[in-house]
Design brief:
There is one protein chain. The chain is of the alpha+beta class. It is built from 11 helices and 10 strands. The strands form 3 sheets. It has a 4-stranded mixed sheet with strand order 1-4-5-8. The structure holds flavin-adenine dinucleotide (FAD). The site of flavin-adenine dinucleotide has 21 residues, from β1, β3 and α11.
Length: 380
């Protein structure tokens, strides 16, 4: 499926595609097994200006489209979903809420740093508050011109890689979603401590941490948006974030399918390539169709997001739901196409399958996406 990109954007995309194939893909298995992305890869992404692409020109970026960002995340995820997540997290989860709701001061302080390659993250989930994001217990109590923050966050993507985080806390207890405020915290703020690295089934190169806030002082200028309006900031951020996850899912699925097709052409059984068996050809046709349909929904969602269309919420949830379910089924079938070899770590099929699973869970599980889609439809 083609989508409108300017000539410059297309050149950037082709360049990133080449970087992903030539430099990232050969390292992906090692990134998975060592649970670490080599510093030189992150530095290379910084040097090549990956992080500046989506940051507005006024704040030191290139001001290119959200659609381009989505296409980049897709390309990188074909090679390595963990590395793609660094960029996705920094731009859709940290920069986007500042672009949408940040004061001029916050934008000037943080967006140029992101454009220069400083990574950020979003910390909203807590041990007792996942899908029910309004039930957080972290508190921010006003003391003069500062807030005193206490509590903890779990499952923070880019935890070790980030220099700063957007996080939310209760500022008016008892008011539920209407008593939550969003802030920015620097990683080295006294009172902020990463308490645990979380080891995972997939996207193992991506750092996921638990963090604790113990009398952490945050200046009131670090508020993102208005006091007690933070839930809106978070929900809007996730609407954009879901499109990034849909793109990640498409990349994982396409990467797995490309490798399976290559394997099928050279693997011979019963005197012919297994790609000649019609039973397997039907599987390929179904997989490719679902991937293409995921693309159509996701690119549509990206365009609606750019236009700030009212339909953006419904379509971004549909894109995330459909693309992630597609990624899970396609990668599972790709393991099957490799036969016994698909079950070994000698091929990437099993890694893609493990990586795919998270796309059905984070940034709102697929059960939550169905609730959002139904709510949006019934509201019309
Ligand atoms: C690798 C990884 C990275 C992550 N990155 C981040 C991050 O960067 N920042 C961040 O803040 N969070 C992050 N998360 C957290 C993630 O978004 C949550 O795990 C997710 O939203 C689900 O919350 P939970 O784990 O508490 O599950 P729960 O909310 O406890 O859900 C358990 C099950 O119940 C279902 N369920 C819950 N409520 C309903 C309902 N009303 N109707 C039907 N079914 C329901 C869920 O779908 C799920 O199947 C990450 C998680 C992981 C694993």
């Amino acid at each position: 499926m083609s989508v409108k990109l300017s000539e410059t954007e297309d050149e950037i995309l082709q360049y990133i595609k080449k970087f992903s194939e030539d430099e990232l893909k050969p390292l992906a298995r090692e990134i998975d097994s060592s649970m670490q992305i080599p510093e030189r890869i992150i530095k290379r992404m910084k040097d090549l200006g990956f992080f500046s692409i989506y940051i507005p020109e006024k704040y030191g970026g290139n001001g290119l489209s959200f659609t381009l960002l989505v296409r980049i995340i897709e390309e990188m995820s074909k090679a390595c979903a963990s590395t793609a997540l660094i960029l996705d997290g920094a731009l859709t989860l940290f920069a986007e809420p500042l672009i949408m709701f940040g004061s001029e001061d916050l934008k000037k302080r943080y967006l140029p740093r992101v454009a220069n390659g400083s990574v950020g993250g979003l910390a909203i989930t807590e041990p007792g508050a996942g899908s029910d994001a309004a039930s957080i217990r972290t508190t921010a109590v006003k003391k003069g011109d500062k807030f005193m923050v206490n509590g903890s966050k779990i499952f923070v993507t880019n935890g070790r890689t980030s220099d700063f985080f957007v996080f939310d806390a209760v500022t008016s207890p008892g008011k539920g979603s209407k008593g939550i405020t969003t802030f920015v915290a620097e990683k080295d703020t006294p009172g902020l401590r990463i308490s645990r690295d979380i080891h995972k089934m997939g996207i193992r190169g991506s750092s996921t941490v638990e963090m604790v806030f113990n009398d952490m002082e945050i200046p009131e200028e670090n508020m993102v948006g208005e006091l007690d309006q933070g839930f809106k900031v978070i929900m809007n951020t996730l609407d954009a974030g879901r499109i990034g996850i849909a793109a990640q899912a498409i990349g994982i699925a396409q990467g797995a399918l490309d490798e399976a097709i290559q394997y099928m052409k050279q693997r011979k059984q019963f005197g012919k390539s297994i790609s000649e068996f019609q039973g397997l050809q039907f599987m390929i046709a179904d997989m490719a169709t679902r991937i293409e349909a995921s693309r159509a929904l996701t690119y549509d969602a990206a365009e609606l997001w750019e236009k700030k269309s009212g339909d953006s919420v419904r379509i971004s949830s549909m894109a995330k739901l459909f693309a992630s379910d597609t990624a899970m089924s396609v990668t599972t079938d790709c393991v099957q196409l490799f036969g016994g070899y698909g079950y070994t770590v000698d091929f990437d099929a099993e890694r893609h399958m493990r990586d795919a699973k998270i796309t059905q869970i984070y940034e709102g599980t697929n059960q939550i996406q169905r609730l959002i889609i139904a709510r949006e439809i019934l509201k019309q």
